[in-house]
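Problem: given the chain below (127 residues), write out its structure.
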Amino acid sequence: MDRKNDFLKILKKNSELMFILDEVSVLNLPNYYLAAGSVFQTVWNYSDGNNLMTGIHDIDIVYFDKEISADSSAKNDKKLEKVLSEKFPINLIFIMKHTCIFGIMEIKYRIKTQKMRLSVGLLRFML
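Solution.
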């Protein structure tokens, strides 16, 4: 059994999702991918015999473009979301995320975690 090919065949059966991906490719985003929610839901729907778009309310596209700074990524994400929303006037929400934001979130999380560890360590020392 070739799970990868079986998986891809299931995804390709979701013609609406494939059409959306075709339109995303027109945006010429470097290094983009469809995030897991709609992928997972398509496979789940296929397994249950449902319409393949059942339960898919948003389309998450993650990308990285070295030409876009972390400061301007949110504005660019909103612009891309608007472009896709206008192309697909259906009840789908498009969520675009430049991966630089994940790096920023990770750094903030690490700093917060380190501060918490320091606080716990000081508290232990004081007790």
